[in-house]
Amino acid sequence: NAGVTQTPKFRVLKTGQSMTLLCAQDMNHEYMYWYRQDPGMGLRLIHYSVGEGTTAKGEVPDGYNVSRLKKQNFLLGLESAAPSQTSVYFCASSPGGADYGYTFGSGTRLTVV
Amino acid sequence: AQKITQTQPGMFVQEKEAVTLDCTYDTSDQSYGLFWYKQPSSGEMIFLIYQGSYDEQNATEGRYSLNFQKARKSANLVISASQLGDSAMYFCAMREVGTSYGKLTFGQGTILTVHP
User: Fold this and answer.
1) pLDDT tens sequence across B26-39
2) For residues A88 and A10, what is the distance between their CA atoms, to the nearest angstrom?
């Protein structure tokens, strides 16, 4: 019953440091997404993937990179963290189609100081 | 242009009363899905209810119902008999079939506070 698992749950980075957020799903979903949530702005799409080996940019991709080497994993990388990347990051997966919503991970709270 | 608009940053309701959370959307697609999610203070995103653009009846899930007015492009969430545990942030979201591989576009959210 794992669903979507995000690691880590919390992290504090110094400006300029790099890190990778891991998202893993066990539902055999084709589509995976990374969102960031900021106060008053809802959730904004960073990058997404429609299948193993494919990735695409979302609304706010600058400063982030992603990889989907295996169908069940979707990694979000920050190469050189900036304070503007302080946010809560959500991973989600979906089988696709208009009538399917997302299964969300529990989120990662990232603070860049 | 904003695709999903939630005009109520915050709403207050008395326990056991009903409350309506507003959501309007903008799309040129004929086929799309509308979703509501709840985010309690613990932070997780919980799916509440779904309405398809071709569904003729309003969706209902327990105490949640979706007042879907297609011509007005509105998809308001109605919570009946509010409970203290309903206090949370609520997001409206839309999924368009024809674009971007089914990504969800979210509104800004409405914080609901239920008073005893």
Assistant:
1) 998 888 899 999 99
2) 9
- How many Cα neighbours within 13 Å face the side chain of B6? 29
Residue in B9, B71, B4, B87 with CA at minimum distance from that of residue B79:
B87
Q: Per DSSP, what are the bridge partners of residue B113?
A: B12
Distance from CA of B102 to the nearest CA of A (A): 6
Report how far residue A7's alpha carbon sits from residue A78's, in angstroms, rounded to the nearest whole number.
Answer: 14
Express each pLDDT in B52-63 by its tens digit: 999 989 999 999
Instruction: Annotate A86-111 with DSSP letters as a single string.
Output: -EEEEEEEE--STT---EE---EEEE
Mutate to test the interface with B, among A102, A103, A109 (most CBs of B within 10 A): A102
* Whole-angstrom distance, CA of residue B104 vs CA of residue A32: 11
